[in-house]
Design brief:
It is a single chain. With 116 residues, this protein is mainly alpha-helical. The chain folds into 2 domains: 62 residues, no CATH class; 51 residues, no CATH class. The protein is built from 3 helices and 4 strands; from the N terminus they run αααββββ. The protein has a two-stranded antiparallel ribbon. Strands 3-4 form a two-stranded antiparallel sheet. A hairpin with a 6-residue loop joins β3 and β4. α2 packs antiparallel against α3. It is elongated, with a radius of gyration of 21 Å. Bound molecules: zinc ion (2 copies). One zinc ion binds next to loops. It comes from Clostridium zeae. This is DZANK-type domain-containing protein. Keywords: Membrane, Transmembrane, Transmembrane helix.
């Protein structure tokens, strides 16, 4: 094997490792987040690198928000921080839906939020 062949060989090996690695990372990350289609994401990542990886990161990261008190990343739809227990949302008085602190109207039942 010449030096040039060796370079091509190790180069494609690194690309293969990266390719499999990102798919595995997507799978483990999705499983960590209790994503329903963890395996589906992984397969998608395998076939459409790097588009699926970017889409995956945008979608999963877009569903998170930061706790105002401790700064940890939280899944959307929570009313308390799972790390420090601070309130991060409020409950709609008429339908019980979870609302963001900044919302005045409930998107589920369209009622105005009333502070009790
Ligand atoms: Zn917190
Ligand atoms: Zn409501």
């Amino acid at each position: 094997m010449s030096l040039g062949e060796l370079a091509v060989f190790s180069g494609s090996f690194i690309i293969l490792l990266f390719w499999l690695g990102q798919s595995l990372w997507v799978y483990l990350d999705a499983r960590n987040r209790n994503e329903r289609f963890a395996l589906g994401w992984a397969i998608l990542a395998l076939f459409s690198v790097p588009v699926s990886l970017i889409v995956y990161i945008l979608i999963t990261r877009g569903r998170e928000e930061k706790c105002k008190a401790c700064g940890s990343l939280l899944e959307r739809g929570l009313t308390i921080c799972t790390n420090c227990g601070a309130d991060v949302g409020k409950i709609c008085g008429s339908c019980g839906g979870i609302m963001k602190e900044s919302w005045n109207y409930c998107p589920k039942c369209k009622n105005k939020y009333q502070d009790n």
